[in-house]
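[RESIDUES AND BACKBONE]
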Amino acid sequence: MRCCYHGWLFGVNGQVLETPGDPPGSALKDRLFHGAYPCKEYKGLIFGYFGPPDSIPEFPIFDSYDYPGDGLVPYCITYPCNWLQVQENVMDPAHAVFLHTRVTFSHFSDTWGELPVMDFVETPTGMIYVTTRRWKDKVWVRSNDIIMPNLAQVGHIWEDGQDAKQFGRVGITRWTTPIDNRTCKVIGWRHFHPEVNPRGIGKEEDCGLEKVDFYGQGAGGSFEERQRLPGDYDAIVTQRPIALHGLEHLTYCDKGVVMLRKLLRRDIRKVAAGEEPPRSTLRSGGAIPTYCHDTVLAIPPIAGVDDLELQEEVGRRVTEIVISGDHHAADDRHDIVRKLLSEYESSVASQAAA
């Protein structure tokens, strides 16, 4: 790499190879060394390692990186605010009811406007939210992943809860990467496979630099338009460049945000004490299991059973199957999870038919 200003030439490891403006025989290049960090190019993204050179960890491969029939399309969006308020959005399922559905229009589907039964559960990689909704004769359970500290995974964006499925997988994998305290970038992949784009709504050509193929994720449109029809970007960046937690009034809807902050503080303290942050030791087919999913079960209301209590129980049991058990270290983990979910669906549906 050559500097355009004075022509210095650098090797990939930071070594200064030439200082052409200096007198012949100058030893300056032998006394200087530029900082350099190892990089890995993987499926269209470049990952850098910035930690101690004597303890470079294995590059983590998660099970969503190589899914059957999947096309990973890189995208990147800049946010003029602190990274944490962008990351917290993924653990705030209540905003999908209002921002994405009731307040303006249905950004994804009308089903998102149903206020779900909510839960938040730790996983071997971080945490998930669990939202459970009734939609006609089905129960839709959805979980987004947080993989600590700054990786997140989101399911099928246009899921409508109408078609039965077990353990439908990831629609977005993204890192919220700080640039400085007041700027960050969301960098990741949109996934394109039949489970997350069954009706062809997703558009690969609309994903890339400062753009992605669903509503409200960037600064596009005039200020007036964004006031009337706000999206995630507008709700996040208008919290100030750095949201002031001391001015917050956290409620039931913010339980996921609170849990995420607690996990982040836990890991910060571990690193500050010289310890390693927690990492999942599970492997399935050589990859680290993840827990983002959409599961839609054909479970109608049951006579004599409070339906909200039924939804809560379905969400709890589905989550147990998705995150717990020895099968998460099996090479055919996906098949086992789907089989267990199908068996559970049949057992509950039979009670409704009785």
User: Anything to note?
Assistant: The chain has a mean pLDDT of 94.
